Each structure stands twice: as C-alpha cells, then as structure tokens.
Amino acid sequence: MAKLAIVLIPILMMAQNVDMYISLLHEGNTAGVREQLPELVSKFPNDPDVMYLKALMTTDGMAALEQYSNLLDKFPESKYAPDAAIKIGEYFYARGLYTQASSYLSGVLTQYPNYPNVQRVIDLMVSSFQATGEEDSAKFYVYMYKSMFPGLDVSEYGYRDTERRKQAPNLNPMVMEQKHYVVQIGAFGSEANARRLKLQVSQIGYSVIVSPVQTNGRKLHAVRVIGYSSKKAADQAGRDIKKKLGIDYRVLYRPKN
After folding, report:
1. CB atoms within 10 A of CB 52
2. Could you give the CA distance from residue 218 to residue 4 in angstroms, rounded to a whole number?
3. Sign of the CA dihedral with 94 first, then 76, 136, and 163 last
C-alpha cells in the first residue's frame, strides 16, 4: 500500500514536495523513493531540494559528500543547506576525521542559527573535540552556543560554569574570522575539476573551498584550504598535502572584507 502511494505521487512536482519523499524515507520507504528518483532528477537536475534528496539516496560516502558540498556551494541559502552541512560533519566524524569534523561543526550553527536540532550538532561537535583531546575548544564552543541557545542541555559534558570563566578569556570568540591565511592548491577553468580536487583533499581532513577568481580577464575556480591564523601554520598544512598527495601549493593572505 505504501509503495502504491509513492507511485501515485505526481512526478511533475514543485520543489517543496520533496518534503513528501523525505518523509517517506524516514518511514522506511526507501525502495519506492529510489524508484521515482531518476525521473525526478532528470526533470529537476538543478533544484537544490532534489539535489539534497539525491545525496540522501547515494550510498557511496565520497559521492554523497561531493553532492552535499556541491549543494552548499551553489545554494548556501536553500532549505536543506543546513542539513547538508550537518551531513558533511557526520561524514567526517564517521571516517574518524575528528579534527575536520570539529572544525566544520563548530561553525555550522553560526551560519545556520535556525537549524532545529541544535542539540544533535553540539553533541557531535563535542565528541569530535574530545576525540582529539581539545577540551578547551569544546568548552569554549559549548558555552558560546549555550548563550545563543539557552535551552541547550550541556550538563552531560561535565563542564562546570567555573571552568567556563577560567577558559573563556584564553579563547578568542572571533578566532574563525581571524584565520586569514589560505593554502591555494590549484586554479581551474573547469569548475568540475576544481570540485574533484576539493573532494580529494577533504578526504585527508582539511577544510577546502572553491572560490571564483579573475586572472588576466579569465574566470578561474581556485581551490583553497582554509582556517589558518599564521603563515607558518598554513605552510605546514601545504607541506603535508604535498607529501600525501603530491600537490603543489601557495600560501596566500586573504582577509575577509
């Protein structure tokens, strides 16, 4: 009966009806949704909601990661962009890339403060920090987000308020905005090539973005590893990437406007 209901859902649908398919997935109707997905994608290939549904249905982790990243790059304000961002953090955590997971998840809620399941994000973020022994960073972000979301339950982490007062002065709440050094590892005319390199370097635990740049009147897609407050730290990351993947790099200073 459930499968019959799926078949009766019109394939010519507006993007908001993707909610219906996602609800069916949550109810365990994976096979029926998978049956409808190819036609849906063929009719709405650039719809962000459809892109998210396709990523959800992708069983290969690396392919799904690329699809979530593509959605965020093209449609950062779309309905399912926050969920896509959380999925990326979950992927890094599941792969044991805890530094990448904590770095990614610690900024998600500042970008998407209306995400409904704040507790889920914080729990995973704290676990990521704790896995790498970064208790001070975990405490800082826990109390920062507690101030943003008063209903957040932080009791299970074991961080007392006295620890917050002790640790907070040693941490700069604008640290994410002061990390102006980037490691540029390539610039491509083809956006697809840039995204492939982004995915490759993400797999070894780095935060990577694709930025449009103009060079001699030509538009290129620069692949950059971000998140460094000093040239020395950025250069160290560049050397590590070159050692592991054989990719040349340049360290650039790119402050935010």
Report:
1. 24
2. 52
3. negative
Residue 228 to residue 177: CA distance in whole angstroms = 10
User: What does the pLDDT look like over 72-131, one tens digit per residue?
Assistant: 888 888 888 999 999 999 988 998 888 888 888 888 888 888 888 899 999 999 999 899
DSSP character for 175? G
CA distances from 92 to 121, 172, 224, 249 (A): 13, 25, 18, 23
DSSP classification of residue 209: E
Q: Taking the CA of residue 100 as centre, how many other CA atoms within 13 Å lie in the half-sphere pointing to its CB? A: 22
- Kindly tell me the burial class for residue 53, based on how many C-beta atoms sit within 10 Å of its own C-beta (0-12, 13-18, 19 or more): buried
How many of the other CB atoms lie within 10 Å of CB of 225?
24
Q: How far apart are CA 84 and CA 111, in angstroms?
A: 13
Longest dimension (CA), the chain: 62
Amino acid at 195: R
| Beta strand 250-253 pairing with 181-188 | antiparallel
Report the predicted TM-score, pTM, of the whole model to 2 decimal places.
0.63
pLDDT band at 170; cut points 50, 70, 90: very low
Strands ordered across the beta sheet of 250-253 = 208-215, 218-228, 181-188, 250-253
